[in-house]
Specification:
This protein is an alpha/beta fold. It has helices at about 10-20, 25-30, 45-55, 70-80, 95-100, 120-135, 170-190, 210-220, 235-245, 265-280, 300-305, 310-325, and strands spanning about 35-40, 65, 85, 105, 140-145, 155, 195-200, 205, 225, 230, 235, 255-260, 265, 285, 290.
Length: about 350
Amino acid sequence: MTALPVRIPDLTTLEELLSEPTPAVVEALQRVSGDILVLGAGGKIGPSLTRMLRRATDATRRIFAVSRFPNPALVEALSRDRIEVLRCDLLDRSSVERLPDAAIVFYLVGMKFGTTGNEARTWAINAYLPALVAERYRRSRMVAFSTGNVYGMVPVTSGGSRETDPLRPDGEYAASCIGRERLLEFFSRKFSTPTVILRLNYAHELRYGVLVDIARAVYHEQPIPLATGCFNAVWQGDVNAWTIQALQYADSPPLVLNLAGPETVSVRWAAEQFGQRFGKIPRFIGTEAGDAYLSNASRAHRLFGYPRVPLALLMEWIADWLMRGGEVWDKPTHFHERSGQF
């Protein structure tokens, strides 16, 4: 593997790092055979995960990327990488049934932002659609994303929610995600489908993430809400690697794993660190509450190891990227939201 750079100079380097497979990823894919289907491949995580899959396995293995793909440039880029791009309305049962067979399915589909006022569609995407997919791919091995929001808030001194903790969803988004998990579990039990459910808590790269939201606010001298005073952060490249490695632990009923960084990161501390880098004094609103959405990912760390990219280096990359005018997506995380309304 390439050594981690002290800075990321351009988008090409960023994409290369996000999709670079680790030796453990290559080994995990060697243990399972068959073609691979990535559902929701057009979202924030899908393109780099799909590219990592392509880079980690031989050219004879077909890899399908499925999404609506409104961005033609992404379609062209994935196609250049020898990925078979399929445009599909996944809410249409007949379209799902026409998708190609695949021994391995990565399920990345979900709706979070825009839930408020559009609750019915949120439930359709987060709960109805998983049932369609689970029935269609009942003979496949599946890895499906969920969210740490299903736990509700926990004390900031708790170390974060564990997989065995009771689920206490705040709002319809988190409730619909429990619906997704329950339906995947139902069909896994019914058809003995090996499945892993990954409760992800804040993947980051240089164009989006909680740290990017905080860094941008400091850089542009905008106030930062403090009520939700802590969060988890992990490099998206590590999330991609762990997601692929999780294949070997798929089971029926499903194995559930939290994916998050090892630290409980303080919003105030992160802002002050960026402030020192930018030569600016952060502005804050309110004070920290005693609880937040936090996950304990120690089980995943035991299976996959600690993140390759440490928190300090990730923050240095983000600060340098912003100061050089690097591309940033207009996709705020709303990390400060405490009511579960998105």
